[in-house]
Amino acid sequence: MPTIRPRSPSPSEGARSSKRQKLNEADDTSAFVPDLFEQATVKKLADAYEASEPYKHAVLDRLVDDDLLKKVKDEILGELRFAEKETDIYKVHQTGDLASLNYLTPEQLTLFPSLLRLRNALYSTPFRRFVRGVTGCGPLSGTQQDMSSNSYRQGCHLLNHDDVIGTRRVSYILYLPLSGSGSTDWKDEWGGALELYPVLPPVEGQLPEPDTKPSKRVPPAWNQFVFFEVQPGHSFHSVEEVVVALGEDKEGRQRLSVSGWFHMAKPGEEGYEEDRERDRTERLASSLEQLSASPPIALKPYPSPLPIFIPSTPFTESELIFLSSYLNPVYLQPRSLTLLSQQFTKDSSLSLKDILSEALAEKLDAALRQKDAADCLGPDRQCRIPAHSAGEGNGWVLAGPPHKLRYCVLDPSAALPPAKTIDGETASATTLLRSLQDDLLPSPAFRAWLGLVTSLVPLNHNVIARRFRPGLDYTLAQADEEEARLDVTLSLTPQPHPKAKPAQTKVDKKGKGKTVEKETEEEEMGGWESCAWGGWESYMAPHEGEEDPAVYRSSGGSRSKGVNGTSERANGQDHAGKEEVKEPQDKLLEDGDIDAPEEGDEEQAEDEEDEEGFEIAEEDREAYEEALAMEAADRAANGDGPAENGEEGEDAEEDYEDETGTLLTQPASFNGLLIVLRDPKLMYFVKYVSAAAEGSRWDVCGEWQIGELEEDDGEEQAGES
What does UniProt give as the signal peptide span (predicted)? Predict the structure, then answer.
């Protein structure tokens, strides 16, 4: 007779859960290279991490099983869509957040088995424990997954920053660089290296700032993994521009990666520490605010004493003689100044071309090209990324810090050249720029010119000559919080020489080639003018409520608004929102309000000018009238007239205001002048100059504290605005 015994109890739910967890952990660990989680491996990496410079970081030559990584690469390229994103701080092709894989249907998930396995493995308990063991950081969240795939192709870059946002605790990058034709042998000269920056000795009461140059480069390599703890004011890094062309291969040459962050543990997760999270989150927010804030630039007063400044006061004879040695005579004519003032009053900005005299412009063009060639920053560089020390010395020093800006400036400790050196036939670029920086823009005569053009009272000022080297320099978006400023930028970037197109061949019906003509044609100017080389100057309305500063820095749009934040008719704008550089007297006529002088009107014009105390010199009248006629013809050719339906135009502007915060974008030009009345909190920056540029972006820029005329007991006085 069979013996009856009680049935064994079923495994508890806890036991089943523990078994599933062990199976999942086994699958997660199998995604990585062997021995990664061994105690000896972790200790070796932790020791190297502690000793690393310029701040603690780890570099693993191999992380993931190679077969798995190849499948991940195939799924990324075959199934994910990359969107090109460009702001002041980066240009990159990026997928969406891969945490969104959680929301796909089972059918959709079958497209990403390897990518899903990699993501789950990276945020698994064993790997998070491994990261903590190497870095010594606090608990990491497994539920907050923050990762994406990035493709850095030719021209892509990421400028200096420290990754301090929200609850980020550890940054990581897994490299999958592609060299074309199935190869993964990335060449160092193609760019894309991770650059790590040391910090300078901190100033008491302030966060440390990064040095202007990185002290370590980590070139990308297949299956290489880099990670480091996010440290406010310490973990400064950037991604070098990729300079190699993508090519026509299916995969192409691109710096592909999977990157993201481990965040602090969340409530309910193992190791969550409420007090520590609150303290750290507040500290991170505070550091981000300090890094983003820019203290007002120290301004210099004009020599004292000065007479009461009235913007409408005509030039004195000495002022006119001084300005004539620098400026195009067209811009010194009273009628021109009156029309420019009207235009500035309407738009709060002016963009002028050929501002300097022809003789001075020719000297500058030749000298600046020669300077670039001497510093190996000219066209012969063939798009290679220059050394960070390029252009230093011989009267030039680097300005920073690079998490806000980087460019070369004239060494303030260098000896000043003797007066009138700009008259020499062989004056150097340094001498010419120093004269513009120290003599022209800060002069009382140029102050008088600004007053006539803007109807404002320029007060204290700061002027600086800048050199933005290709592949290295930029400024990031910043704003002055307190008061409006008048910005003046004298753009001096030599433009590419026109290139001849090859002779065209016409093919007849029989397919035989027959040369039609051998004459060459000038190619349309590209590079600077098209903004393909970067270096453009941009003004943007402030954005509120964005957690990531990189979000509000995004620029674009198809039209421009007035720089004071009010909507203005798009004047001289192309489809990309880039402001057209104007010829002399351009933008003086607006919507037919002021007509170009016609024959028979000269006496009337002279009478009007006499009433104002102005007179156009007879020898300049022909050039003046020709410029006005050219402007009118250009306006007619581009259909730049008033809208037929005013209400529709206003509605279009309202729609536009919702699309973009970009108010004005100005390409780098030669011998151009941009004047902008910048309201408080208005963002502005100069875009990173690409290594593809054939030379440096040069300018002399200044900003002025401004006042306006106030009436006091019947007398006009200048008051601070």
Answer: none
Does the structural domain 21-292 have CATH classification 2.60.120.620? yes
pLDDT digits (tens, 9 = 90+) for 226-273: 999 999 889 999 999 999 999 887 789 999 999 999 999 998 888 887
What is the DSSP track for 407-453? Answer: EEEE-TTSPPPPTTGGGSTT--HHHHHHHIIIIITTSHHHHHHHHHH
DSSP labels, 22-67 = HHHHHHHHTTB-TTTTSHHHHHHHHHHHHH-SSS--EEES--B-HH
Residue 625 has pLDDT above 60, yes or no: no
CATH architecture for the domain at 318-495+526-583+646-720: 4-Layer Sandwich (3.60)
| pLDDT tens for each residue of 477-529 | 998 878 899 999 999 999 998 765 554 444 444 343 443 343 333 345 568 99
Cite the beta strand spans of 95-164 per DSSP E: 140-152, 157-161
CA distances (Å), origin 307, targets 312, 392, 503, 582: 14, 41, 64, 34
Q: Three-class SS of residue 481?
A: coil
Angle of helix 39-51 relative to helix 125-135, nearest 10 degrees, comes to 40
117 to 97, 146, 263, 559: CA distances (angstroms): 15, 15, 20, 45
Written as one letter, the residue type at 511 is: G
With a CB cutoff of 8 Å and minimum separation 6, the contacts of 389 are: 213
At residue 704, the 3 state secondary structure works out as strand
Instruction: Give span(s): CATH 2.60.120.620, the chain.
Output: 21-292
User: DSSP secondary-structure letter at 648?
Assistant: H
* Whether pLDDT at 653 is above 50: no
Dihedral, 625, 626, 631, 634 alpha carbons, nearest 10 = 150
Three-class DSSP category at 538: strand
Q: Is the peptide bond before 305 cis (omega within 30 degrees of 0)?
A: yes
Query: What pLDDT is recorded for position 590?
Result: 32
Count the alpha carbons within 13 Å of 351 in the hemisphere toward its beta carbon: 20
pLDDT at position 9 is: 54
Return the H-helix or E-strand segment holding 647.
helix 646-657
Give the residue among 158, 132, 159, 152 at the shortest CA–CA distance from 262. 132
- Contacts for 668 with CB less than 8 Å, ≥ 6 apart: 491, 493, 528, 533, 535, 536, 537, 697, 699
Question: Is pTM, for the whole model, over 0.85?
Answer: no
Dist CA 241 CA 91 (whole Å):
9
CA distances from 502 to 497, 508, 524 (A): 16, 19, 14
d(CA 634, CA 628) in angstroms, rounded, equals 10
Token pair of 239 as six digits: 């991604």
What pLDDT does residue 355 have?
98
Q: Are 634 and 353 in contact (CB under 8 A)?
A: no
Nearest to 568 by CA among 339, 350, 352, 346: 346
**Predicted pLDDT at 282:** 54
Structure tokens at 88: 């002041």
In the chain, which residues fall in CATH 3.60.130.20? 318-495+526-583+646-720
